TrEMBL record:
InterPro entries: ACP-like_sf (IPR036736), PP-bd_ACP (IPR009081). Residues 15-96 form the Carrier domain. Gene3D superfamilies: ACP-like. The lineage of its organism: Bacteria, Bacillati, Actinomycetota, Actinomycetes, Kitasatosporales. Pfam families: PP-binding. Coiled coil: none annotated. This is Acyl carrier protein. Signal peptide: none annotated. It comes from Streptomyces galilaeus. It comes from the Bacteria.
């Protein structure tokens, strides 16, 4: 039985992945990491707050593949996982644990 206040290992893993992704997004988009860290998880990656460009998106995808071993472009041909911080974190967490 788990304590209701202790996150499950998968929730803990996802939170860690999201934190790392936020730092990677900030670097790719050339934004202050503290700003990206404070954005809601449903913030659009290509929206006005982050403003990820296509070149920055490619940089981010390469960093995700290097760090997590998840080739987002190969696994998600429509790139729906790049909708928001949350969708990318969910996608990477799911595919990382499937390895």
């Amino acid at each position: 039985m788990t304590d209701a206040h202790t996150p499950s290992p998968s929730a803990t893993d996802r939170a860690a992945v999201e934190r790392e992704l936020r730092a990677m997004i900030a670097e790719a988009a050339r934004l202050d990491a503290a700003v990206v860290a404070g954005l809601p998880a449903d913030t659009d990656l290509f929206g006005p707050e982050i403003g990820l460009t296509s070149l920055a998106g490619v940089t981010l995808l390469g960093a995700v593949d290097t760090r997590f071993g998840v080739d987002v472009a190969a696994l998600d041909l429509s790139l729906d996982s790049l909708q928001s911080i949350a969708t990318l974190a969910d996608f990477v967490t799911t595919h990382r644990s499937a390895r």
